[in-house]
Amino acid sequence: MTRGAQVCQSADMAATAAATRDGEPRIHMVGIGALKIAAAPEKLRTVLGSCVGIVLFDLHLRIAGLAHSILPQGSEEIEELGKFADQAVDNLVVRLTALGASKTRLRAKLVGGAAMFETANNGAQLGERNVEAARRRFQAHEIPIIAEAVGGTKGRKVRVHPDTGNVEVAIIGSEPVII
């Protein structure tokens, strides 16, 4: 059995074991500063304001990661793997490739980065800086960002589907859209 087949088999077994007692797939909540990986049929979810949700997935393996980044960049390694957008991108790449994902198959989506707070000066909002930091890191890794739902002034509910790469995004008070 090839390494790729072993990874797929491992991901399938993990996904089968990931069902709740009623048979429904688990939905993992990703908190502020956190980063989680899921294999289909599991799902990932979070709620964002000025934070950026960084999604990275490999459709071939049907795995995805979601980081809930609160700040654009960090200068030190910390336990919260998703806290800083730049480090979160790096951590997602490392974790997904360790599971057998090919960097050439990885695709990214960005969500959130709303302007939730007034700034004293006319500088970039925190949300905008979070999104830009993630964009720069994906560019450095040569991983395409294929969709974004960023900016605005309202928070968003997010649900990631590793089996399809779809990301459901619902601006608070609105119906969800798929990116």
Describe this structure in words.
With 179 residues, the chain is of the alpha+beta class. It has one domain: 2-Layer Sandwich (60s Ribosomal Protein L30, Chain: A). The protein is built from 3 helices and 10 strands. A 5-stranded mixed β-sheet has the order 1-3-8-9-10, with no helix packed on it. It has a 5-stranded mixed β-sheet with strand order 2-5-4-6-7. α3 (126-141) links the parallel β6 and β7. The protein is globular.
Q: Can you lay out the helices and strands and say which pair or pack?
A:
Blueprint: H1 3-17, E1 27-29, E2 35-39, E3 43-48, E4 52-58, E5 63-69, H2 85-98, E6 107-112, H3 126-141, E7 145-150, E8 156-161, E9 166-171, E10 177-178
Parallel strand pairs: 1-3, 6-7
Antiparallel strand pairs: 2-5, 3-8, 4-5, 4-6, 8-9, 9-10
* SSE succession: HEEEEEHEHEEEE
Radius of gyration: 16 Å
3D shape? globular
Mean pLDDT: 86
* Biggest sheet details: 5 strands, mixed
Strand residues, percent: 25-35%
What's the count of strands?
10
End-to-end distance, in Å? 35 Å
- What's the number of domains? 1
Helix content: 25-40%
Poorly predicted runs are 1-17
- Structural class call reads alpha+beta
Q: Can you tell me the CATH topology?
A: 60s Ribosomal Protein L30, Chain: A
Task: Please report the first level of CATH classification, the CATH class.
Answer: Alpha Beta
Named CATH architecture: 2-Layer Sandwich
**Strand order, sheet with most strands:** 1-3-8-9-10
Individual helix count = 3
